[in-house]
TrEMBL record, chains A, B:
CDD domains: PGDH (cd05288)
Protein name, per record: 8575_t:CDS:1
Domain of life of the native organism: Eukaryota
InterPro entries associated with the record: ADH-like_C, ADH_N_2, GroES-like_sf, MDR_fam, NAD(P)-bd_dom_sf
PANTHER family, A to Z: PROSTAGLANDIN REDUCTASE (PTHR43205), PROSTAGLANDIN REDUCTASE 1 (PTHR43205:SF7)
Keywords: Oxidoreductase
Organism: Gigaspora margarita
All residue ranges annotated as the Alcohol dehydrogenase-like C-terminal domain in the record: 138-272
Residues annotated as domain Oxidoreductase N-terminal: 39-88
Amino acid sequence: MPSNKSIIFKAVPDGYPVAGEHMELVTKEIDIENFSLADERYSSYEIGQVLDGYGIAIVVKSNNKKYQVGDYFVGLIGWEEYSHITANVVSAEALAKEIFTKFKVPESHFIGLLGIPGMSAYVGLNKIGQPKKAASGAVGQVVGQIAKIKGLRVIGSASDDSKIKYLEEELKFDGAFNYKTCNVDKKLKELCPNGIDIYFDNVGGETLDIVINHLNNFARVVACGMISQYNTKDHYGVKNLIQIIGKRVLIQGFIVSDHFQEMESFRKEMVEWFKQGKLKYKEDIVEGIQNAPQALINILTGKKFGKMIVKIC
Amino acid sequence: MPSNKSIIFKAVPDGYPVAGEHMELVTKEIDIENFSLADERYSSYEIGQVLDGYGIAIVVKSNNKKYQVGDYFVGLIGWEEYSHITANVVSAEALAKEIFTKFKVPESHFIGLLGIPGMSAYVGLNKIGQPKKAASGAVGQVVGQIAKIKGLRVIGSASDDSKIKYLEEELKFDGAFNYKTCNVDKKLKELCPNGIDIYFDNVGGETLDIVINHLNNFARVVACGMISQYNTKDHYGVKNLIQIIGKRVLIQGFIVSDHFQEMESFRKEMVEWFKQGKLKYKEDIVEGIQNAPQALINILTGKKFGKMIVKIC
C-alpha cells in the first residue's frame, strides 16, 4: 500500500504558527483500492485533521461521472499526497477539469492568476473599487496590473525591497514602497499627492489607518485581506475611521466565492490579457509536502514573493 | 438702531468646548436699513466669526426676488438675532419658504424631522442600510421609527435612561439600552440574539467596535456620525475591523447634502407618516441666543433629549 504524507492541524497558535508545533507531518498507509468515497468529511480546521487549501490534483479513484481516473481536479484539497475530495467540495467547486484544455496557460496559474487570488483582484477592483481613472502578494500584483490596464495610476506596497523593485521595474507600477520599513504617511504624501481613490487592502491594521488619512472624497476601500492582523490577539485599533463620514468613504468586505457566477467572464478577460503580455504573474513554488507548514508561515510573515504554491508530488 | 447678539467662535477647544471660553456672546448694533447685502461672507469656522447652523428666520431685508420681507427662510443661518444670509447660501439651500404653507406641520420640524436630521435618517437607512426585514438623537429617533414602519426589528441605544424609556415606551422600539452605563456586548447578545443586519452609526468609537462583533454576514453600517470621537484628540482605535472581510460588511460614510435631489420624495413620504401618527419627533428647545453655546455642548455630551433647537427671538 502507498504511504500518504499529510500535514495535520496540531494546535491553535497564539501568534504566528510554528511548523512542527501547530502543524505536523504525519505519514499513514492508504488503501486506494478499498477506500470508501464519501459525500462529506471532517472539517479541516479541527485539531488532528488534515489542513486544506486550493490545489491541483490528479484523480486516482472516483465515483463521480464528471471525474475519471487521470483527470485533473482544481479546487479545495487536503495538504497531503493522496486526498479524499468529497462530493460537497466537488459540487461547490466552480473550477472544472476542462479549463486545462480550454485555456493554454501554465497549470499552476489556475490556483493563482486564474484562481482565487486572481479573481479576488479582478472582482474586488471592478465591483467594489469601481475603477474610474488603484502591490506584490498573490492578489495585489494582479490588482495593480488590472488597474494599470484600466488606465489608473497605481502605487503598490509590499514587505520587502526586492518586491518593491519588481513592482516598479517589472510590473511598471507608478510607485511602490516597503510598508514595513518606511514612513507610510510620508511616502503616501509623496507618491499620492492628489490623494487615493481606491485602496485595495490586503494588509489592514496601521497601514489601513494611515491610508484613510490620504483617501479622497468618495474613495473606495476594498477589504480583501488584513494579513497584519491574522496572527495576533492584540489587534491594531484603527483610529482614523471618523474620516470616512466626511469623505463619504465606502469600505466593503468581500469574499471572492460570493462572486463565482462571474468565473467565466473573469477567466476569459484575464487569459486574453495574459496572452497579450499585459499580465505577469509571479509564483513562489516550494517542493515537498513537508515544506508546506513553513510555506504558510512565510506567507504570514511576508517571506515569500508572489503566489505561494507547494508542489506536493 | 437695534442691537444684535451673536455667538462667535473664540478659540479652538482641546476637548469639549466650554461656553465663554471657546464660544462667546457679543452684542453689536446693526443698521438694518443701510446694511449692504452681499453674495458671500466670512467662513463661520474662523476665530472671531459668528457660528452658524440650520435654523428658521424671518426676512427683514432682501434683494432676492424669491424672498420678501416677512417671508420665512429655512437653512444655514448665523447664531445671532439678525443674520446676513448671502446669495450663495440661499441658492445652495434646498429648503424654500413654500414648505410652510405646503406641509402643515410645526415649523421647528423643518430643521428636525423634515430637515437635515430627518433626511439623514431617511436617506441613510434607505440607500445604505437597505432595509430588508435599525435610537434617541435628532437622527436616531427617526431612523428607528422608519425602520419600524418598514417592518424591521429595532434596537436603540442612547446615553441616558430617560431616553431609553422613551425609545421603548413612546417609540415602541423592540429594545433599547444605555451605551454609557451598560455592558454593550452583553446587551447586544441579549437584545440581538440573531445578530445585526443594519447598524446606523451616530456614535462611533467603542460602540462601533462592539457592534462589529454582532454584525451578520452582509450587514450594512451607515456611518452618519461618530459623536464619541468629535471632541477628543485621542481617537478610539477600532480593533474588530478584520471581521468585515469574512462577514462581507459594507461600511459607507455619507453626508446628507449629497442626496438633496431626493428632498421632495423624502418630505412627501415623511409628512404622510407624520400625519398618520406613525412618526413622532422629540425636540429639546432652549430659549435665548445666550444659551446656544451650552446647547451645543449638551449635544456633544449627550445632555439633551431629541433634536436640539435654540429659539433665538
